[in-house]
Design goal:
Helices cover about 40% and strands about 20% of the residues.
């Protein structure tokens, strides 16, 4: 049985384990160009009242009222947050979600007071969420003009010309449709969105770096974008201004320029895939989602065909950069038992000299299973989707779940994976 202080320390260690958006390990990604290694941050989720046991000593909450929590932050400053309590640890620590869907972990040692109200908890609407996004940029020291662009499923705050946010919103909406259709035809039912998804697009890398620092993920500044699970938002910067004297001001010009930087567009797709998966019931934020699964999923979708007149194409295309790296790994460094070492824990993703190989193998394994064992893979997704916040599996439990879905003979599965990838073009 763990108290929240112990869990927070554990999560801090796991942050180094590169992303998954799993358990309190969240997903903040630092780009996914060719052989870029994404990175982790911390994150998220659940409800309040007629509590039932969720395991590991914490209580899963099931009511929908607002509590005002007063606490000391890590710097010792007194502050407060209003939201719904998702999890109560046995020592009194709390996991809280506010109206913007930001997650707050409050250890018992920092908690000062909780006032439970009878006010029904409600998530922000698009206008409120847009204001919150701009407020966060101000808090990060980014003092520039922003406009808010809303669509059916997204709220975008951008300091770029409107053409950039409009083009990005069209891409994201196409992804929603494609993601829904893809999994609907493959035995996995996605949940409807509970609220619009927040996206922040900054003018340049300087602003982007400031935001990454504010989000406590400075390494993300080296990439083109990241998904921050704690805040449930994507952060990007204007891809059209990198090698140009001025940003694009029409959607046609944006399209023309982004076609020249497909790796950067892949970053947007990668991060958007994480955000969709965490908000539509595929992964539970703050649950122990295996990194190989969450990253493999995002890499599977990161090959868009932007010229497709159907709006979105490329799902399931071979990811050439990942395949090249996996084949090189096969020839030079991959030993026996590699699949088991990938699925039993996230350690390979945490080690700088092994992470790129781990990502390439996560893509290869995911691609292989989706293309050849889709029913088993979808059932495995359903198993992982049921995991609860702040519950950790042992390595043995992870392997057992995988074997339950795909069979006990991992050596045979490994041979099939190698044979399958050898035929890919």
């Amino acid at each position: 049985m763990q108290c929240l202080d112990e869990r927070t320390q554990y999560l801090t260690r796991r942050q180094a384990l590169r992303r998954s958006g799993g358990a309190l390990i969240a997903v903040s990604t630092a780009g996914t160009s060719s052989l870029t290694v994404p990175q982790l941050v911390i994150a998220q989720s659940n409800d309040d009242a007629g509590a039932e046991r969720a395991g590991n000593g914490q209580r899963k909450i099931t009511s929908q009222t607002v509590s005002t929590i007063e606490f000391r932050d890590n710097a010792g400053k007194e502050t407060s947050v209003a939201g719904r309590v998702l999890v109560r640890a046995t020592d009194g620590g709390l996991l809280v979600e506010d109206a913007a869907r930001r997650l707050w972990t409050i250890p018992a040692s920092q908690l000062k007071n909780e006032t439970v109200t009878d006010q029904a908890f409600q998530l922000f609407d698009s206008e409120q969420l847009g204001r919150r996004l701009v407020e966060e940029t101000r808090a990060a020291g980014i003092d520039t003009e922003f406009h808010i662009h809303t669509t059916d499923n997204y709220v975008i705050a951008a300091s770029t010309p409107e053409a950039c946010s409009q083009w990005t919103s069209q891409l994201l909406e196409r992804m929603q449709i494609a993601f829904q259709s893809y999994w609907q035809n493959r035995h996995f039912e996605l949940h409807p969105l509970a609220s619009p998804l927040p996206v922040l697009i900054l003018s340049n890398q300087t602003q982007f770096a400031k935001m990454a620092e504010f989000d406590r993920t400075p390494a993300s500044a080296k990439g083109q974008g990241y998904y921050l699970v704690t805040a449930n938002r994507i952060v990007l910067f204007d891809l059209t201004a990198q090698d140009a004297t001025s940003p694009a001001t029409t959607i046609v010009e944006v399209q023309r320029r982004v076609e020249k930087v497909p790796a950067s567009v892949a970053t947007v797709v990668h991060e958007a895939t994480h955000q969709i998966a965490f908000n539509r019931g595929m992964h539970c934020r703050y649950a122990d989602n295996p990194v190989w699964l969450t990253e493999g999923m995002a890499m599977y979708f990161e090959t868009p065909d932007l010229k497709s007149r159907r709006g979105w194409s490329g799902i399931g295309k071979v990811n050439d950069a990942r395949l090249f790296r996996f084949r090189e790994f096969l020839k030079a460094r991959r030993g026996t038992g590699s699949i088991e070492s990938l699925i039993r824990d996230n350690s390979r993703f945490a080690e700088a000299d092994r992470a790129i190989d781990a990502y390439s193998e996560a893509w290869a394994l995911s691609y292989f299973l989706i293309r050849t064992r889709i029913r088993d893979y979808s059932q495995y997704l359903n198993t992982i989707a049921q995991k609860q916040p702040l519950q950790w599996d042992t390595p043995e439990e992870r392997v057992a779940e995988f074997r339950s879905a795909f069979g006990d003979d991992l050596a045979k599965l490994d041979r099939e994976l190698v044979s399958f990838t050898s035929r890919l073009k």
